Amino acid sequence: MVLVAALRLDGSGSGERRAEPGRSASAPSFEQLYEEHFDFVWRSVRRLGVAEAAIDDAVQDVFLVVHRRLPEFEARSSVKTWLFGIALRVAQGHRRSQRRRRDAGIVAEPSAGELARDPATPSPLESAERSEAVRALHAILGSLDEDRRTVFIMADLEQLAVPEIAEVLGMNVNTVHSRLRAAREQFEQAALRHQAKQQRRMG
To answer: What pTM does this model have?
Structure first.
C-alpha cells in the first residue's frame, strides 16, 4: 500500500536507538526512554489527531506520565506498546480539550509552516514532497472513525502485533482483527476519494 508506506516515512525509525550494552531492557531509565522513543511518541500523538500547535505539549504530557509511572513498568508488554497506551490516553484528553476550545471559538487554524513541520531533515526537495504527502495522509487518517484509526496506526504504521493492540485497548483479539479489516477498507476508500479530488484539481 503506497500511501501507508509513505506515511511510515513520517519520522518512523528516526531517533530510536538500541538499548545501551549492559543495561537491562526490562528496566530502562527515563533518560534512555526519552532519547530512544521521543520520535515515536511525537508521531503517535500527531497521528492520533492532536492539533499541530498542541503536539509539543502533548508529548511533554506523555513523558510526565512516563516519568511518574516508570517504577510501575514490569515489562509484561514491550516499552513501545506501553508508551503507545499512554500516548493514546493523552491524545484523547487533548482532543477533548481541542473540541471544547473550538466550540468556544478560541482555537486558531494552524499556519502553513506548522502544517509543513516534519521531525526528519531531508533535502529541500524531498522535504517539500514529503510534507505534501504527509499532510494528505494525515488528512486521510483524520477522516477515519477514531477507534478504527487507532487500530490502523498501531498495526499498519507502527507494526504492533494484534495481541499487543488487544492488550492496550482492552479488547479481545477477534475484535481487533475485525476492527482492523474495517479500518483498512475505510482508509483505502478515503485514499481513493483524495486521489480523485487531486486528479479533478489537476484536470
So the answer is: 0.70
Residue-number span of the structural domain to which 119 is assigned:
2-202
Quote the CA–CA distance of 12 and 41 in Å, as a whole number.
Answer: 10
Instruction: Give residues with Cβ within 8 angstroms of 73, minimum separation 6.
Output: 79, 82
**Count of domains forming the chain:** 1
Q: What is the pLDDT of residues 14-26, one digit of tens each?
A: 444 344 343 444 5
Closest CA to 89 of 104, 116, 69: 69
